Amino acid sequence: MKPIGPLPPEFLDQAGALSIAGRSVDSLVAEAGDTPLFVYNMAAVATRVARFRAAFPGIDLHYAIKANPLPALLAAIAPLVDGLDVASSGELAKALTVKPAQAISFAGPGKRDDELTAAIRAGATLNVESEGEATRAFAIGDRVGVTPRLAVRVNPDVELRGSGMKMGGRASPFGVDAVRAAALVRRIVAAGADWRGFHIYAGSQALDAQAIIDTQSATLALAARLAEEAGVAPPLINLGGGFGVPYFAGDVALDVERVGAALAESLARRAPILADTRFAIELGRWLVAEAGVYLTRVVDVKQSQGETFVIVDGGLNHQLAASGNFGTVVRRNYPLAVAARMGEAPTAEVTVVGPLCTPLDRLGDRVALPPVEVGDLIAIFLAGAYGASASPAAFLGHPPAIELVVERS
Amino acid sequence: MKPIGPLPPEFLDQAGALSIAGRSVDSLVAEAGDTPLFVYNMAAVATRVARFRAAFPGIDLHYAIKANPLPALLAAIAPLVDGLDVASSGELAKALTVKPAQAISFAGPGKRDDELTAAIRAGATLNVESEGEATRAFAIGDRVGVTPRLAVRVNPDVELRGSGMKMGGRASPFGVDAVRAAALVRRIVAAGADWRGFHIYAGSQALDAQAIIDTQSATLALAARLAEEAGVAPPLINLGGGFGVPYFAGDVALDVERVGAALAESLARRAPILADTRFAIELGRWLVAEAGVYLTRVVDVKQSQGETFVIVDGGLNHQLAASGNFGTVVRRNYPLAVAARMGEAPTAEVTVVGPLCTPLDRLGDRVALPPVEVGDLIAIFLAGAYGASASPAAFLGHPPAIELVVERS
Questions:
Q1: Across chain B, which distance is largest between two alpha carbons, in Å?
Q2: Does any CB of chain A come closer than 8 Å to the CB of residue B90?
Q3: Which of A39, A171, A181, B111 sits a CA distance of 20 to 30 A from B157?
Q4: DSSP letter for each residue of B109-154
Q5: Mean pLDDT value across chain B
């Protein structure tokens, strides 16, 4: 038997039939009309936003829409956050439907000229990733007659310890090395562009509060040093994000209150050049991952060589990360449950697989579950971030998943 | 420096500007109107079909459309093959536009009732994956008034040694265990369904001819034993596929002629009950992978901590497998080239990354390339199978890749 990850707090004490935002999964499937189905509970998102606000007073909250760009979710989350971070002109166009351009920033190591043009015309902030990109942005600003709003993305010389994806402390395609950042700021200011500050992102999916505290402290020190070197105060510092959620057995939720208290202390002691700077934290996964549940129906239950396989109608075509095939070396089980039997003791070890004709399509490997039959719904949790939009939906020709946004009435 | 995989034969001797099917990549990009772009050369596919025909006289050739379901490619390949194998009702609908239902078979461990109904109504063969699925197919056949065409997919007790994905010799969601297959055949015949034979798929992406020879020989013996046990001769045996292509440094192309000669010998000695049976080999990757090239344009070239990053406008959103994030444990480099400088000696070590804001988006890790500048085209080879359709196209909101089918004029 292999363990599964922990249930998100909203589902911990449920017994009997699973409910999401106070609604039964059967009614949600009926509303959607079919399975497989993602359900996103905006009340769970709002809970996390409120927790952030309490822990980080005075800090701007940005939503990184790459985590979940569904338009209905975006429309619901936009009023709750101060800014939106986008990573392509496609995401920019979506963000502009729900936020003013001044609240949108665009990061990405390979922005094409057409993407720079769209951002500059709209008035969004470009997080400049290289000297060459800055040069292109100046030229495009001149051509379209709009002063570009440019922040400098810095490849920090610190990494985020324990993060699922390290993006600092090493050679990187993201941002400019810290040693060149001040010179780039001076060039931006000299070119007459509107310098917006720094974007410094050291890693993602960290559960260790001390690691985030240390990274934020180092990031603040780095930003102060760069600002002094450039001789200009940054209007905004995007401190990155990196707040993780517990996906796997043994993972323990991040103590965000501790991170917030430590950041407040660091800010109280910050260098004078940052006195009037605003600070933002950019979160995607932490805001939406636990709010999402993927519901898929059991099509077959079969035996093979002594093992039991539960075959469901959705798989890695909708939830690649849960299959263990996206950015993970060792496959581990996401939390999952038989939706009608929450809280019931397991009675058998089964392997839950999707319908795809590939051995990669495995959603639960040798997991202990209560009784499960054809027609039952299986719930895969932690499906709100990097799910539907980060999976190969066309692979093997199955229909896309339905996506439903719900709020507690 | 890390090595790259070998160029497909069509590109081995090219020098200067890359051409595909006799056309320059610049003209192909001009026709497409933009990058990133997949180009599929049907002449390369036809070469492989001809090679198969010569090596396997009398054996049916099926195309597994999961490898590349692009409608234009499907229309071009359909006349070259004897059958199409599909894995969903979406693929079934596409296949029916280019082949009669009698030439289509449908495998997949989690076929929903609506999928079984579509296949039975159309008259396609269902590769039955479990006793429960057979029961559902009988009921649906009765309801719609059509005799189902049913083959039995067998989970073989042999594995394909050295295959990239083993699908036999172990507990599996695919097919019924060999010990239960004959009983299922008898049930199908007794129910009055049209029993079409066996589907036995032991693995994929094998480069070792002897491994495939051994597996085919064992598959034939297994099919004969099951047919004798069931007391009925199978009209068709789908021997599976498993023919690999060389993706990585050190890979050596499969000797298909040797496999063909060995299969002919095995067939000459086959059990009497298989005397009138037809045999099919089901190929996807081997037919189309080498025919595809992914072309993406350099957006930026930058230095970070002593390393050079070449940033291109397409990445894992179109070519997930080339980024090493789909079914591989250790990331290795696909063959790639600066399209304008085929055959030129490398001058520098660079890392080629896509535009996505994630460290996973790496297409060439520390590869040796000739000089490369902003605006150049980078060609990633082996892009014809499991590329566009097997990648998370919506991830990060970039446009989908353009796909172009070309034939040598």
A1: 72
A2: yes
A3: B111
A4: TT--HHHHHHHHHHTPEEEE-SHHHHHHHHHHHHHHT---EEEEEE
A5: 96
Residue closest to A378 by CA, chosen among A318, A329, A326 = A318
Q: Flag whether residue A219 sits within 8 Å of chain B, measured between CB atoms.
A: no
B45: number of Cβ within 10 Å: 26
Distance from C-alpha of B72 to C-alpha of A162, rounded to nearest angstrom: 47
Name the closest residue on chain B to residue A390, using Cα atoms: B395
What's the pLDDT at B327?
Answer: 75
In this complex, which of A167, A395, A399 lies closest to B390 when CB atoms are compared?
A: A395
Chain B (361-390) residues lying within 8 Å, Cβ to Cβ, of chain A: 374, 388-390
State whether A299 and B172 contact (CB < 8 Å): no
Question: Looking at beta carbons, which residues of chain A come within 8 Å of B303?
Answer: 177
Say whether A166 and B359 touch across the interface (CB within 8 A): yes
> What ipTM describes this predicted complex?
0.96
pLDDT, residue B166, reads 63
User: Any idea which residue has 């991830």 for tokens?
Assistant: B395
What pLDDT was estimated at residue B409?
55
Cβ of residue B181 closer than 8 Å to a chain A Cβ? no
Amino acid B136: pLDDT: 98
| Pairwise CA distance, residues A314 & B163, whole Å | 26
Residue A71 near chain B (CB below 8 Å): no
Q: A268: part of which helix (H) or strand (E)?
A: helix A256-268
Per-residue pLDDT tens digits for B363-404 = 999 999 999 999 999 999 999 999 999 999 999 999 999 999
Query: Which A residues in the span 343-362 are in contact with B, Cβ-Cβ below 8 Å?
Result: 351, 353-360
**What CA–CA distance (Å, rounded) separates A36 from B392?**
17
Ordered domains of chain A (ranges, CATH): 9-40+289-406 (2.40.37.10), 69-283 (3.20.20.10)
Q: Is A316 on the interface with B (CB under 8 A)?
A: no
Establish if A173 touches chain B: CB-CB under 8 angstroms: yes
Decide if B61 contacts B265 (C-beta within 8 A): no
The answer on pLDDT for B407 being more than 80 is yes
CA distance A68 to chain B (A): 9
What is the residue type of B45?
V
Partners of A350 in the beta sheet? A367
Q: Which residue of A has its CA nearest to B107?
A: A357
Q: How far is CA A206 from the centre of its chain?
A: 12
**Are the Cβ atoms of B311 and A109 closer than 8 angstroms?**
yes
| SS3 of chain A: helix, strand, coil, percent, to 5 | 35, 25, 40
Instruction: Tell me if chain B has a CB within 8 Å of the CB of A98.
Output: no
What are the tens digits of pLDDT across the range B69-111? 999 999 999 999 999 999 999 999 999 999 999 999 999 999 9
Residue A259 sits at the chain B interface (C-beta within 8 Å): no
* Tens digits of residue pLDDT in B234-272: 999 999 999 999 999 999 999 999 999 999 999 999 999
Name the pTM for this structure: 0.96
- As a residue count, chain B comes to 409
DSSP assignments along B208-260, one per residue = -HHHHHHHHHHHHHHHHHHHHHHTS--SEEE----B----STT-----HHHHH
Q: Within 13 A of A314's CA, how many CA atoms are on the CB side?
A: 28
Owner of token pair 């001149």? A142
Pick out chain A residues at pLDDT < 70: 163-169, 409
CB pairs A-B closer than 8 Å: 214
Tens of pLDDT along B162-208? 766 666 678 999 999 999 999 999 999 999 999 999 999 888 899 99
Q: Which H/E stretch holds residue B200?
A: strand B194-200
Task: Give the angle subtended at the CA of B322 by the CAs of B316 and B328, to the nearest 5°.
Answer: 105
**Residue B132 is nearest to which of A86, A110, A302, comparing CB atoms?**
A302
